[in-house]
Write a structure and sequence with these properties.
Bound molecules: S-adenosyl-L-homocysteine
Distance between the termini: 98 Å
Largest sheet: 6 strands, mixed
Radius of gyration: 40 Å
Low-confidence stretches: none
Number of strands: 18
CATH architecture of the largest domain: 2-Layer Sandwich
CATH topology of the largest domain: Methyltransferase, Cobalt-precorrin-4 Transmethylase, Domain 2
Number of domains: 4
CATH class of the largest domain: Alpha Beta
């Protein structure tokens, strides 16, 4: 027989068992696990059923029930043991569309009874399509051992709070997450341990916490920390630092900047300097999302401006996908801070008409190259290049520019630690840099400015690393 498992309501009309003997009594007892009352059609009742009748759980109706007694029942079990009578009842039930079972007579049945693991509100029903009752029994025994004996208390707890949770938490992710948390959490433990009052108290707490987390979803502020000098922070950035519950900061965001944060703030360094990614990008994103979902105001503090070589694109995409509110507070990018400190313009009506931000980083690897950039196009006309993350590839980019037709005598100036303590400036030319990049002895972080503007008079001390006459002559 092919069957489909369902749970049938026995609430409205009582199920019917025919027969007053032992077999009928067993089936009656089984039905009473769920049914409030069972109707038994029999001439007389055995001692057990008679006892149940006295207790009000069984109502006796005349033997040999007809159409009217069978119509509308949720189910009928024909267990008189008299084959003809059982077949008669089964025929009526089938004609009326009432589910019927005749023990050990599959041909007469329209439903079969599963092996059952009963934990009150939780029922596990096992069927084998009649292939192996013994296998079903073994599974039942195994489940009996595996399932906590007080599983019903847990189900009741969930049932009691179901409406309250539905009222307070929106359907879908929030509600599902809440229930997942409940079954893994303290309230469940208490319920299973038989501490019902404690379990209910913990449920109340859990609902409150979930509602709070749901309504007070946090947000993420991508904040530019500027080049390092705290005075170069924007007022908005300072306000964001004061509002933060947690700050995820890059190594480039200076310590002076962090002084503006609240004392109780949680500070998480997420690394980011060449070769030192203390936290992988995807983990940083996960962390931001997790904290914002927990209702926190998360500041992602980045050196300079967050939208310049800061992987903000990836972070924004992840936050948007997660449905988290984001705000961006710009900062002074290192190239502009370097120019300000040198007091040289990046554009000049006579010698430079555009500024390009270039990353020296993608050129990394065994044999760095700048093939991905059209250096000739960058050098057409009069323009300035600001090279970030270029300390290790400065020589390569200088050679590339010369090959692309830039004037080998074009000035270059590098600024180490712009706007910070130990700021250092070094002036050279494309030719010098291409020939011997090590001569600059640059420490990170440093920005390089390529272009005629780099040769304008600069304020303050500038080291000059113009080299030997031979090198000069080679490029003359
Ligand atoms: N978002 C940052 C750039 C991050 S990429 C900004 O807008 O400034 C990191 C690079 O920035 C470093 O390799 C270096 O080239 C540059 N940089 C950052 N701070 C610097 C500083 N104080 N002085 C010089 N260069 C700096």
């Amino acid at each position: 027989m092919r069957t489909f498992p369902i749970f049938v309501s026995v609430e409205r009309k009582p199920p019917l068992v025919t027969g007053g003997g032992e077999l009928a009594a067993i089936k009656t007892r089984l039905l009473l696990k769920r049914a409030e009352i069972v109707h038994v059609a029999a001439g007389e009742l055995g001692p057990e059923t008679a006892e149940l009748e006295r207790a009000g759980r069984v109502a006796l109706i005349p033997a040999r029930p007809g159409v009217d007694q069978i119509r509308g029942r949720p189910l009928v079990i024909a267990a008189t043991g008299d084959d003809d009578e059982d077949a008669r009842v089964a025929a009526i039930a089938r004609a009326l569309g009432v589910p019927v079972n005749v023990p050990d007579k599959p041909a007469l049945c329209s439903f079969v009874m599963p092996a059952i693991v009963d934990r009150g509100e939780v029922t596990v029903a096992i069927g084998t399509e009649g292939t192996s009752p013994v296998l079903a029994q073994r599974l039942r025994a195994w489940l009996e051992r595996e399932l906590h004996p007080r599983l019903d208390a847990l189900a009741r707890l969930a049932g009691d709070f179901r409406d309250a949770v539905a009222d307070k938490l929106p359907a879908g992710r929030a509600r599902r997450k809440f229930w997942e948390g409940v079954f893994d959490g303290a309230a469940s433990e208490a319920a299973l341990a038989g501490e019902d009052a404690e379990a209910r108290r913990l449920m109340g707490e859990a609902i409150e916490a979930a509602v709070k987390a749901e309504t007070a979803q946090g947000r993420v502020l991508l904040v530019g920390a500027g080049p390092g000098d705290p005075e170069l922070l924007t007022l908005k950035a300072v306000r964001a630092l004061k509002a933060a519950d947690v700050i995820l900061y890059d190594r480039l965001a200076g310590t002076g900047v962090l002084e503006h944060a609240r004392r109780e703030v949680e500070l998480i360094p997420v690394g980011k300097s060449k070769g030192d990614h203390s936290l992988p990008q995807c983990k940083i994103q996960e962390l931001m999302i997790e904290r914002a979902r927990a209702g926190q105001t998360v500041v992602r503090l980045k050196g300079g401006d967050p939208l310049v070589f800061g992987r903000a694109g990836e972070e924004l995409a992840a936050l948007r996908d997660a449905g988290i509110e984001v705000e961006i507070m710009p900062g002074i990018t290192a190239g502009l801070a370097a120019a300000a400190s040198l007091q040289i313009p990046l554009t000049h009506r006579d010698i430079s008409h555009s500024v390009t931000f270039v990353s020296g980083h993608e050129a990394g690897g065994e044999e760095p190259s700048f093939d991905h950039l059209d250096l000739a196009a960058l050098g057409k006309g009069e323009s300035t290049l600001l090279v970030y993350m270029g300390v290790s590839t400065a020589g390569v980019i200088a050679s590339g520019l010369i090959e692309a037709g830039w004037n080998a005598a074009c000035p270059v100036i590098a600024v180490e630690n712009a706007s910070r303590e130990h700021e250092r400036r070094v002036a050279t030319t494309l030719a010098e840099l291409a020939a011997d990049p090590e001569r600059l002895q640059l420490n990170r972080p440093a920005i390089l400015i390529f272009g005629e503007v780099a040769g304008l008079p600069a304020a303050g001390l500038v080291e000059d690393v113009l080299s030997s006459p031979e090198v000069r002559r080679a490029y003359a």
